Amino acid sequence: MASEAAIPGELTALHGVGPALAEKLGRLGVTRPVDLLFLLPQRYEDRTRLTPIGAVTPGSRVVIEGEVALSEVVYRRRRSLLCRISDGTGMLTLRFFYFSKAQQANLVRGTRLLCYGEARTGPGGLEMVHPEYQLLGPDEHVRLEQALTPVYPATGGLQQFRLRSLAAQALERCLPLLPDWLAGLLPADSPLPGLHEALRLMHRPPPGTDLARLAAGRHPAQRRLALEEMLAHHLSLRRLRERSRDEVALPLPRRSDLRERFLGGLGFGLTGGQRGALADIDADLAEAHPMMRLVQGDVGCGKTVVAAAAALRAVENGHQVAVMAPTELLTEQHRRSFTRWLEPLGISVVWLSGSLGRRERQRAHEAIGSGSGQVVIGTHALFQEGVSYRSLALMIVDEQQRFGVYQRLALMQKGAAGSARPHQLVMTATPIPRTLAMTLYADLDSSVIRELPPGRQPVQTIALPDRRRDEVVARVREAASAGHRAYWVCPLIEDSEELDYQAAESTHAMLVEALPGLAVGLVHGRMKPDDKDAVMRAFAAGELQVLVATTVIEVGVDVPEATLMIIENAERMGLAQLHQLRGRVGRGATTSHCVLLYQAPLPEMARQRLEVMRETNDGFVVAQKDLELRGPGEVLGTRQTGLMQLRVADLLRDADLAPLVQRLGRDLLDHSPGLVDPLIRRWVGDAAHYGNV
Ligand code: ADP
Ligand code: MG
After folding, report:
1. Closest atom, ligand 1, to C-alpha of 333
2. CA distance 410 to 413
3. Quick check: pTM over 0.85?
4. Does domain 249-449 have CATH number 3.40.50.300?
């Protein structure tokens, strides 16, 4: 039987790898030659064919060949070098924002070029921004690739050609010795290939491989690897769960009437779901082992109150609570809620923000260190170097889907006080199907809040083509004059913060002009946290009636007076994101509206998504539909569920593998427990050690 022990253990055993390269590889999680096999391409490029320029469509990545017809440096907005090239079938512009003198001198009229890049529609027709290119001699023959070109996840200073050559060495030297641990466990008639075949295909897809299927992540080779990867994570989380049962935490029983006084001052009663979740939490907290609990509940169900009520248990036992949220914006909002709720009870709330000055930060650190800060709120900065808690008993993680599972575990390690570990309360608005939750939150117990607070009216959702924007502007005007507030969310432009920002700016300018007399604010990801918070505060206080935003407001923001949500280019967004955005309204007693603006013609998949949004407000239904609609070939923007960093598996797309993962997990633990650690090591690598203290 093949054994990993026979494979060289040192990266430097590979040709061309010295200490410097080994260190860079380490940053990708590659510490042994065999790890290279599991560093999988993110995508593939087809450089096996030449496309006539006349046949190039915007959005496609193609190889073209042509002759420079015109080359000039222009200064519109930004200095750039433009080269018009032609091959007799059409023209295309190459656009360079960064270029050297030598490059400019090379790219003159009459030069023949071979280019590879993504075509898009620019101001002067088709263009490619910063294509890869190669100069061709007048009679030189064009040489194309023989196989699909893998593109590996890159890290600073590691070039693709180097990763490709390392992968080739690993395929040759390590693959034949690599054991396939699932070979005996999968049913004989399984459609999934063996491990060797799967890995070879991933690194070296032969010409003719179904690229669309590969891009959609539905190739059997990917499914085989996704299965093993999910299994490794599942086992690693089960291990962690088991270990936590042996670990010590500070028991936090009820000590006073603090909780009752808090709830009495709220002005509303808890929903059944909120009470249920709190009862689960209380039972866990009373134990001397760390709580590991996930509270799932749709946007707006009121998870923050539950968090605050849980926090009181730690406070009344004389210990501290850390409340962690993924964005500064959210921590600012939590600071407001927690301060308003808890300070009247004599509890001190400390905010650790990136925007604090040196002195303020110093003071916050002191309060955390001395224990005078009882509830501490912040981003992951809460667990950075230099922050030490006097006695942290509970850690609350909001919007867990934005943090990685292992990141959360690592932070918990840092929060440990002596031998005691903090209890963990994790909250998420991303509803995930039960089987998936059991597989991938295997380290957590879960409570679900099913209902929204009473009196909420479902958000009325409509979809309108972009050309009816004027009517939408009129609606915003009406809502604002009736004393309501509106969000206007701008198009999401993939992978380009710069363009996101431009789009938001121009929408802002348009609305300022169209809505005289109304205060229109703008918030986007590139603003300083301070400025962002100032704008959000002004919107929350009603000084601004309209807020133009990029998707930075997607999670958690709570302004109950906002009743109108406009989402531009809704056709480009995934269901989960649309649902999160819509969840920003419908938080008060007045009926709220959500307008999904789209660019016609609407692709079929997008049409179905908007349909789902119009039909239901229920996050669990939306999540289920999301799964059903994510057919092959469907690209849903760049953001995945984000539960953990995965190499091949996509938790939603591969959700159907969850039951098999659980069965295999049981089989391995029962019959081959010795394989569990190597399997975890193979896929989860060092991340797993976060939990090993
Ligand atoms: P999410 O679960 O999305 O984090 P929040 O905690 O932000 O939701 O709560 C949404 C809004 O509902 C807040 O304004 C909160 O004060 C309010 N709220 C929470 N629980 C209740 C309740 N039981 N009754 C009425 N309003 C509530
Ligand atoms: Mg929330």
Report:
1. 7
2. 5
3. no
4. yes
- 499 CA → ligand 1 middle, Å: 34
Distance, CA of 386 to CA of 378 (rounded, Å): 14
Phi, psi of 494 (to 5 degrees): -55, 135
Is-same-fold flag (53-136; 249-449)? Answer: no
Q: Which of 266, 301, 304, 592 to mutate to test the pocket of ligand 1 (most atoms within 8 A of CB)?
A: 304
How big is the chain by its Cα radius of gyration, in Å?
28
CA 21–ligand 2 middle distance (angstroms):
43
Domain 53-136: CATH class, spelled out: mainly beta
Determine the straight-line distance between the first and last CA of the chain, rounded to whole angstroms: 33
Q: How far is the CA of 333 from the centre of ligand 2 (A)?
A: 9
Question: How far is ligand 2, taken at its centre, from the CA of residue 297, in Å?
Answer: 9
594 CA → ligand 2 middle, Å: 19
pLDDT in tens, 60-80: 889 999 999 999 999 887 889
Which CATH fold topology does 460-616 show? Rossmann fold (3.40.50)
User: Given a cut of 50, is residue 690 above it in pLDDT?
Assistant: no
Pairing of strands 91-96, 80-86: antiparallel
Ligand 1 pocket by C-beta < 6 Å: which residues? 268, 270-271, 274, 297, 299-305, 429, 453, 556, 558, 560, 587
Residue nearest to atom 24 of ligand 1 (CA): 453
Residue nearest to atom 9 of ligand 1 (CA): 302
DSSP calls for 344-370: GGT--EEEE-TT--HHHHHHHHHHHHH
Residue 634 has pLDDT above 50, yes or no: no
Domain ranges of the chain: 11-45+149-209, 53-136, 249-449, 460-616
Atom of ligand 1 nearest to the CA of 271: 23
pLDDT tens across 393-452, in order?
A: 999 998 766 566 666 776 666 666 677 889 999 998 766 666 667 776 777 888 989 888
Which is nearest to 504 in space by CA: 566, 550, 564, 569? 550
